Every structure is written in C-alpha cells, then in structure tokens.
C-alpha cells in the first residue's frame, strides 16, 4: 500500500503540469467567481416619490436618487428606466418596489435599510414588493460553500478517474495485480495517495479563499478544511468507481456531466426541500451533499462539530461504501 | 515449477479462443508457445496466472491450483505492451514493482543494478520512461518481470523490437536463469526464436496442434523449418476467421 502511495506522489512530482493544474486551477476559478459574484460596489439607482426630505438626503449617501413628481407604474417604469427600486409612502407604510431578486436589488435594499437605520427606525413599516417574484431566496454571495465544494470535488474526480482509466488501459493495473498484493491494498493505496494530493489541494483552496479572497467563515476554518478533505477522499473514490464503467478516456470525460452536474443541484444551490416529486431525496446519494451541507453550516451558520456530525458521518459512510465497491470491482482484473 | 494446464477452454462472446487446451510445462525448461497473432497465446497466459477465469478446466503451478495470491510472488509476468509508469524513472518503476513483491531495499538495489546491466539500461536508470524508446521500454519491462527472482517466468513476446545484439544477450541470460532452475514460458510468433527454447507447443485455431522438444519438432519437418509444422496440421479444421 505504501508503495502505491509513494508511486502516486512520485508520478505527480515528475508531472509538474498536472500538479500545477490540481493546485492552482481551482484558485484561478475561485478568484474569477469572487470577482464575478463579489461585492462590486455597485451603486443602486433608486427612484423616490413623495418622501420626506430628510429621507431623500440620507438616501443620497447610499444610492443614486431620482426624484419623481408623479407616482409611476412600477413595472413599466423600473424596466424602462433601468432603475433598481422605487419608493413611496402611504398610510400603510413605506413601499419598496423592486424588479426581481438579483444582486442589484439586494444592493438597493441594503441602501434603503441603511438609510432607515440612519434616520432611526421609522414607525412606518417597510413593504417590499417584487415585480417578478422568483422562487427561493438565493443570494449568490452566500453560496461560497457550494463553489468551494464543487470545484475541489471536480478536479479531484478528474484526476483520480483519469489515472485509473490510464492504468487500466496501459495494463499497469493488470501488472500490479499480478503480484501478491491484496485488492484492498490497491484501492487503499490509491485512495490515500490521491487523497493526500487532494487534501493538499483542499488546504490550499480554503486558505486562499479565507486569507486572500477574504471569504467570510463564521465557524472554524480548521473544521472547514477537514470537511473539504473528507469530500476530496470521496471524490477520489467516485473517480475510481466511474472509471470502471468508462472504456476509454473519452467516455470518462462524458461521465463528468452525468456525475458532476446532478451533484451541483444537490450541493445547496437549490434548497433541497423545494425539489418536487421527492427527487430531493436523491441528495443522499451524492457525496457533495454531505460535504456542502456541512460546509454551509460551518461557513454561514457558524456551527461546530456537535451540530454537523451527521453529515460528517454521512461522508465517512459514503467513502466506506465506495471503497468496498471499488475493491469488489477489481475482481474483474484478478479473481482473488 | 511444473505447470499443468488441464482442458482449459475460453471463449469471448461467440468466438471460441481456446478449446480444451492441455499442456504440461516441465520445471527448469524454456517453453515456447508458438502461434499466429490472435491465436490466443496471451489469453492462455492470462488464464495461467489467474487474471481471467477460464470457462472450464484447471491450471496448477507447482502443485498449487490457480488462482492463488501467494503463488503470484513466484511468477514474473511481462505483458505484451510495456505496462510501465511513464511519469516515473526507470529506477522508480523497478522500485515500485519490487515494493509490491515486498522486497527489502537492499535486495532490491543489488538485484536492480544487476538487471539493468543485463538489459543494458544501467547508464540511464534515472531517465523517465516517457523519454525512452520502444525498445528501451521493452527491456525495462523485462527487468521489472525479473526483479523478484521468480521461479516461473511468463514472457509475452519479450524480444519484439529489441535489436539482435541485445536479443542474444537476453537469451543468454534467460538460459542462465533456466540453468538455475527457473521455468520460462515465452510466447512468440517469430519462428527463429523457437530454436533458443527447449520445448515448444504450436497453438492454432484454439488447439495445440503439436507439442514436443524443439529438436524433435524440427526433425519432424522435411526441411528443418519449424514453420512447416503449421502446414502439417493433422486435424485440419475450417480456418477460424477471427474478426
């Protein structure tokens, strides 16, 4: 088993480009995502009708304010003039009309909230209306954990799947099995060897995300890293298992969308209990679900081991099941 | 080790590749399995090691029934294609496979030096395999098969792509191994290699059509050309077209 681990690390050492891709490509993608989804200092455009002067003055500190003398029809007005929000007040309270939920409307809402807070909470209630109502509450900037999980899973999956396919077709697998080595040791060596590389990758990603990109982590960074490492191990096993069903490298690549895309659905991008026909229950079959849920609880909700242990246990069980499946699958290459 | 193949059959999909093959390979001999490409030589070798199951029949090596995991420590296998790790150096490849055979470092280092001399690769042992030529890979692969001093050597077309000088050197070494008691099974479709071996069997259409010492086989032919044996098939069957 140790021989296999050493060999995998040696192979990587002599293949600098693959190693570089494993470690730095995720950072590149994360950085890109950070800038795409991150705080772009967008100044919202807010139209105001018949509000008191103090409010307008304060709002101008937070947004570009357009004063309207007639109350416009919200839907047409917002769309036609590229305005993010429209505010007016009546006896019921302060009305805020927004077009749809996106990062711009979030910025507008924040500006308005900042304004009302600065002016001391008014007795008037804030009534928020969207022209286009969308299901769910997704604010992209709170989904950092999804990207951390998916990106690291993706790269590790490709690495382990590809190397296993190559090993099978270069017949080095057969040669390896024509020694007294146990099948358990082959899979164990593989999982640990690539798992070790994947663990390094996880640590690099999380440190980069937290200390360079300044990603918000409410809970413990160490615990995050641990969850990422568990997820990386399951990615190695999934890669090895899928490679059994691929007859060549091309087919493995074709498996990527089949394996990865459904996992993204269950990673927390879409709230699982809103998925119809009980399809949400499929999440228990996707290793990313366990990892990403745990990551979400740590990073967003600031939970600790006590709260997330069921998901950690889920990850471990998953890795165990995949391990046994892989050991059994090797029977195809040697009967014992 | 004496190897006994008893009534082994194997078919892939509809095609019968091996049909009730029985074969005894005596210990301490170089045995040549001769056959055209696609005649099932590699399949027979795989069955003998226990890599794939036969449809029927049995294989025993040194009295132990195949498959047996411990038995594999006594077998050295050189596959037809190189089956080496391209990203590793020559030395690292040897080291890895010796690790799988649980050789300790000292035995390995001494043995590896000797083997690299024999296959003429000592000068470039730190070269990465991906930078080696086809013939070099073949030689490294042979060294890998020999690293744990196996009692039974299964070599699948070992000297294809190796130049004549080195080929002679390799044959000399194989004979030396035989004299030390190693049993060697070589598959080939090159007829002139047969003369280096002690015994030979001819595989054709899933049957062994002849099996004897090389000397006797040559005596049976009218002009001393062992290729003639393929045309002297006593049980001519309809040619099996295998594609």
UniProtKB/TrEMBL annotation, chain A:
<protein>
    <submittedName>
        <fullName>ABC transporter permease</fullName>
    </submittedName>
</protein>
<dbReference type="Pfam" id="PF12698">
    <property type="entry name" value="ABC2_membrane_3"/>
</dbReference>
<keyword id="KW-1133">Transmembrane helix</keyword>
<keyword id="KW-0812">Transmembrane</keyword>
<feature type="transmembrane region" description="Helical">
    <location>
        <begin position="252"/>
        <end position="272"/>
    </location>
</feature>
<feature type="transmembrane region" description="Helical">
    <location>
        <begin position="145"/>
        <end position="165"/>
    </location>
</feature>
<dbReference type="GO" id="GO:0140359">
    <property type="term" value="F:ABC-type transporter activity"/>
</dbReference>
<comment type="similarity">
    <text>Belongs to the ABC-2 integral membrane protein family.</text>
</comment>
<feature type="transmembrane region" description="Helical">
    <location>
        <begin position="186"/>
        <end position="213"/>
    </location>
</feature>
<feature type="domain" description="ABC transmembrane type-2">
    <location>
        <begin position="112"/>
        <end position="333"/>
    </location>
</feature>
<keyword id="KW-1003">Cell membrane</keyword>
<dbReference type="InterPro" id="IPR013525">
    <property type="entry name" value="ABC2_TM"/>
</dbReference>
<feature type="transmembrane region" description="Helical">
    <location>
        <begin position="21"/>
        <end position="38"/>
    </location>
</feature>
<dbReference type="GO" id="GO:0005886">
    <property type="term" value="C:plasma membrane"/>
</dbReference>
<keyword id="KW-0472">Membrane</keyword>
<keyword id="KW-0813">Transport</keyword>
<feature type="transmembrane region" description="Helical">
    <location>
        <begin position="219"/>
        <end position="245"/>
    </location>
</feature>
<dbReference type="InterPro" id="IPR051449">
    <property type="entry name" value="ABC-2_transporter_component"/>
</dbReference>
<dbReference type="InterPro" id="IPR047817">
    <property type="entry name" value="ABC2_TM_bact-type"/>
</dbReference>
<feature type="transmembrane region" description="Helical">
    <location>
        <begin position="308"/>
        <end position="330"/>
    </location>
</feature>
TrEMBL record, chain B:
<keyword id="KW-0067">ATP-binding</keyword>
<dbReference type="GO" id="GO:0016887">
    <property type="term" value="F:ATP hydrolysis activity"/>
</dbReference>
<dbReference type="InterPro" id="IPR017871">
    <property type="entry name" value="ABC_transporter-like_CS"/>
</dbReference>
<protein>
    <submittedName>
        <fullName>Putative ABC transporter ATP-binding protein YbhF</fullName>
    </submittedName>
</protein>
<dbReference type="GO" id="GO:0005524">
    <property type="term" value="F:ATP binding"/>
</dbReference>
<feature type="domain" description="ABC transporter">
    <location>
        <begin position="3"/>
        <end position="230"/>
    </location>
</feature>
<dbReference type="InterPro" id="IPR027417">
    <property type="entry name" value="P-loop_NTPase"/>
</dbReference>
<dbReference type="InterPro" id="IPR003593">
    <property type="entry name" value="AAA+_ATPase"/>
</dbReference>
<keyword id="KW-0547">Nucleotide-binding</keyword>
<dbReference type="Pfam" id="PF00005">
    <property type="entry name" value="ABC_tran"/>
</dbReference>
<dbReference type="InterPro" id="IPR003439">
    <property type="entry name" value="ABC_transporter-like_ATP-bd"/>
</dbReference>
